[in-house]
Every structure is written in structure tokens, then in C-alpha cells.
Amino acid sequence: MAPFEGEGWQPLFDGRTLTGWKETKFSGHGETETHDGLILLKMGDPFTGISLTNDFPTMNYEIALDAARVSGADFFCGMTVPVNDSFCSLIVGGWGGALVGISSFDGMDASENETSKYVTFQQSHWYRIRMRVTHDRIEGWIDAEKLIDVVTTGKRISLRPGEIEESKPFGIASWQTTAALRQIKLRRVSEPSDKPKKY
Q: Does the N-terminal or the C-terminal CB of the chain have fewer CB atoms within 10 Å?
């Protein structure tokens, strides 16, 4: 497993149990299992997910994890996060398997706004997914590639209406897909990734 770049990372998953987490109460959810250092979200109809029960920051943080689509053809990581007093979701592999984007900005979901990207994801391949939320930016990476970099000033940030709201304040879900997760880590940051440092 690749090390996490940078310092200050704190694990949110102990590699063995769901201590600090709960199964998200989606209707039609699949089973959740933990073994061999990973969490398995079994295919639901449509959602399966987990939500953090411990405290989570609302601003100036970076969250990262490894995720893989084991079976199915839709998103294997729908990561819901707080942005001040609002929430949004980073969708990885949605809308038929390839869409990456954030839901929602100004009422437009991940398939409709400027964050929409299309990526070919291999089945059962691990991807490092990382999201950074600071006061006027949301950034997102798949492995080393930065796919999302959006200024949030003046935008209305919200979740797509529906059951995904059960993931608040921080949760990870899959849609009609079995997903594997590992190495879920958090760190505090003070600024966007590319802001010049002050000397």
C-alpha cells in the first residue's frame, strides 16, 4: 500500500472493526464487513454505506482513502463531507461507471456542473482518493491526478436530494455496487494545496 504524502495524517479506521463508525441506515442497504484491513460495502438496492460517529471538522481538512470497485458498474465511493454548515458529496465512478464530480453546486449535481470528469476505472483496482476542503476551495485527486479544483465562493453547496443525506456529517457509500475501502485517514490543513507558502 502506498504511503500517504505529507504529514499529520490520523487514521479513522483501525483495520479490524467499525469502531467509530456505523452502518448508514439506507433502505435496501447491503451488508458491511471488515476483514484483512478493509471494509467491504456489499451491493445494495441502491445504497450501502458507513458513517462516522466521531467528530469531524467542518473546514480546513484533507480526507483520503483507498477504494476499489469489486462488482457492479456505478459509484464505488460516494464521499459525503461537511463544508462549513453545508454538505456535498464527491462521486467516484457514477452515472454508469466513469463519472467523477461533486454534488451539488447551485443545485447542479456531479453530472451537470464544472467538476464533471470521466475516468475509466478498472474492476478490483485500488485507487487513492483524496479531497481537500478549505475556505474558498474544494480540491480532489484520484491517485496523483488532480481532477477537481473549484472555487466555492458564492456557490450554493448542497447534497443531492434523497437518501444520501443519511451519510451526514461524514460518510462513504456505494450505489448498486460492491466496494472495498481501506486506509481512511484525515489531517487538518490551513490553505489550498497550491497556495504559495509565506516565508
A: C
